[in-house]
Design a protein that fits this description.
The complex is a heterodimer of chains A (295) and B (378). Helix content of chain A is 34%, strand content 22%. With 295 residues, chain A is of the alpha/beta class. Chain B is elongated. The chains are: A alpha/beta (295), B alpha+beta (378).
Chain lengths: 295, 378
């Protein structure tokens, strides 16, 4: 579970998944859909609701009990944002190796602390504001609508949830499947940076090529460009949303804000192009690109 | 949320950072009274949340109460970068022999606070970085430990500070970090930090931007008495709990995600002009979409509406009910095109079609946007 290796090792049908916030409206519905997809959901946690059962899944008061009773090894968060930091530290302490933080509006100062804590403890964490991870045909840990995804060779990393659905849907409709689709999150600080996720795809035998779905704000794509130029052998394409976004406005995601000349779509496109990445004008252009690379 | 300068000044002052004597005026009479109390000369600063305030003439020095009255009247009638000036900060003018910069912000990529200090202040730190990078020193802060005074002294030593000035500057940086931390700030900045002839330091201009996601725990400390969003449609969006960014076109956009919304906006802009960016986030209900339709339709000159939603975390069938109810009740005549995919999509399409919405079942937003332009005859 921990460390490098194939993305399909990060999540597969055998991964024993815990759902935190399982008794909530969103947590319970999403649990049902993950189970229907084939994900092994072994436990849920909601403090104070231990002993209940949701969608046939036992609910525990603490993560420690959930891990002890069920061997849960990865977790999806549907925890209200003010309580995410506490839940995160609890989950790391209980020995979970993979944590997906779905909620949005987690305070940035909390995310900075969580990120440091995860790194010190060798935990892989994604988000906040991530739709999660799906390895089509194997398992989905997250909120993505499963019908849009299909199994294949393209790895996708997206800052945006909905735009990752669009990208996967376009590929699927064209008969091109995906190896793993990773939502990295859309906040100003994310728990794992884009180059670290790219590195996993570079080493993943299931993935023949990688698509980055980026957007305005921050410097993730610029740093990814550097990583790609120096370290990646697989073909990479990128679509960057927000080309006409005005300066100084938050475009829905906390991290999607252009400040002065930092974070513009043009800056990202140029950096990626200079690194040899195919920059897609629209999401649909991904189909021709994939076919050119024999996928 | 960026605070007004006068709000930030009060917070910095309470944290023990020296700030010039000051008060806020909403009328020329109030400004004159404050100037009389403080003693002239004073600086009049328009309180608008705009970046280029002083370049736009929003800062004036007045030598007498009469001049304060005249200049205040002028400033209070103005707009700066589209923001009407409603209040002035009237500050005692301090004599400054040098200007420094101190700021703390979030390094998003490293995931850490970063303290930036410069021996050159008064202009944007980006400009100093371009012109004389050797005058800037920076330090990433361990978020668990906070900023130690020795680290603050070390960073100013790198810039050659010594004796009392070194100690005062380091003290201010540590206090600034305290504000940054306790207010869940994204940016806490003093620019310029003035050096007076007697070598003491004073925060001449202050900036504080608080993380919106942390308002639940800092709200009690914050003066939130004013409308901060000038654009009425953007303010309405905030009230509804959606993100609305006003643009200058005539095609309304509603999307259920930020990335999708930005892509939709860009794709519409290839053939036409988006009127707005609107993103609901993950909290769609029937009522929210009804209100969202209303918000988008408020924009004068709207010719068509494009809806782009995914059923992942959102119940898109409820969204469809809200859209259709709005169209019936308000007799919407302009074309409305929707692409709605994901969980319960067939049910959603049925509801939308029943209400006169043009449904595109294709997954690519480009093709769905093309459908809208066909209907508009462009």
């Amino acid at each position: 579970m921990s460390g490098g290796g194939a993305m399909s090792i990060l999540v597969d049908r055998h991964t024993r998944v815990l759902i935190q916030g399982i008794t909530g409206r969103v947590g319970s519905i999403q649990t049902r859909w993950m189970i229907e997809y084939g994900t092994s959901i072994v436990a849920g946690v909601t403090p104070g609701k231990g002993g209940l059962t949701v969608e046939g899944v036992p609910v525990f008061d603490t993560v420690e009990e959930a891990v002890g009773e069920t061997g849960a090894e990865a977790s999806v968060f549907f925890v209200p944002s003010p309580f995410v930091k506490d839940a995160f530290y609890e989950t790391v302490a209980a020995g979970i190796h993979l944590i997906l933080v779905v909620p949005e509006h987690v305070p940035v100062h909390d995310v900075m602390a969580m990120r440091q804590h995860a790194r010190l403890n060798g935990v892989i964490a994604l988000g906040p504001t991530t739709p999660g991870i799906i390895t089509p045909g194997e398992a989905k840990m997250g909120i993505m609508p499963a019908s849009l995804f299909s199994s294949g060779q393209i790895g996708v990393i997206s800052r945006s949830g909905t735009l990752s659905y669009e990208m996967a849907g376009i590929l699927t409709e064209a008969g091109i499947g995906q190896s793993t689709v990773v939502g990295m999150g859309a906040d100003p600080v994310v728990l794992t940076n884009l180059p670290d996720i790219l590195e996993r795809f570079e080493h993943d035998k299931e993935s023949g090529a990688v698509v980055i779905v980026g957007e305005v704000g921050g410097i993730q794509e610029e740093r990814a460009a550097r990583f790609i130029a120096e370290r990646m052998s697989k073909p990479v394409a990128a679509y960057i949303a927000g080309g006409i976004a005005p300066e100084g406005k938050r475009m829905g995601h906390a991290g999607a804000i252009i400040r002065g000349s930092t974070g513009t779509a043009d800056s990202k496109r140029k950096a990626l192009r200079d690194a040899g990445v195919e920059v897609l004008e629209t999401p649909m252009a991904v189909v021709d690109w994939a076919r050119e690379h024999g996928i | 949320m960026r605070l007004h300068e006068y709000e930030a000044a009060d917070i910095f002052s309470a944290a023990g950072i020296p700030v010039p004597a000051r008060a806020v005026a909403a009328t020329p009479e109030e400004a004159r009274k404050i100037a009389e109390d403080l003693g002239c000369p004073v600086v009049l600063k328009a309180q608008v949340l705009a970046g280029g305030r002083s370049l736009a003439g929003g800062v004036k020095v007045a030598a007498s109460p009469v001049e304060v009255y005249a200049l205040s009247g002028d400033l209070l009638r103005r707009d700066i970068e589209g923001f009407p000036v409603r209040r002035l900060l009237v500050s005692k003018r301090v004599t400054i022999k040098r200007e420094l910069y101190v700021g703390i912000t979030v390094d998003g990529y490293e995931g850490k606070p970063v303290a930036l200090v410069s021996a050159e202040g008064g202009m944007s730190i980006e400009r100093v970085a371009e012109r004389c990078p050797e005058k800037i020193a920076s330090l990433h802060v361990d978020v668990d430990r906070g900023l130690f005074p020795y680290e603050a002294r070390g960073i100013f030593r790198k810039l050659g500070f010594s004796s009392q000035e070194l100690l005062s500057a380091a003290d201010i940086l540590v206090r600034l970090y305290g504000v940054f931390q306790s207010y869940d700030a994204l940016t806490a900045e003093i620019n310029p930090l003035g050096v007076t002839p007697d070598a003491s330091l004073i925060a001449v201009d202050t900036v504080l931007e608080v993380d919106d996601s942390a308002l639940f725990r800092v709200r009690d400390h914050l003066p939130l008495d004013h409308e901060r969003i000038e654009n009425p449609l953007e303010r309405k969006g905030k009230e509804l709990g959606v993100t609305y960014v006003d643009l200058d076109g005539d095609i309304g956009i509603i999307s259920s995600g930020a990335g999708l919304g930005m892509a939709t906006m860009d794709i519409v802009a290839r053939k036409g002009r988006p009127a707005n960016f609107l993103e609901t986030g993950g909290g769609i209900t029937e009522e929210l979409l009804y209100n969202t339709m209303d918000l988008v339709m408020m924009k004068p000159g709207i010719r068509g509406v494009f809806i782009n939603i995914y059923g992942g975390i959102n119940p898109i069938h409820e969204a469809a009910q809200g859209i259709v109810r709005y169209m019936k009740e308000r007799h919407v005549r302009i074309p409305v095109v929707a692409k709605a995919l994901g969980n319960r999509q067939e049910e959603t399409w049925g509801i939308l079609r029943g209400g006169g919405v043009h449904v595109v079942t294709d997954v690519a937003t480009e093709r769905a946007v093309d459908r809208l332009f066909e209907l508009l005859g462009t």
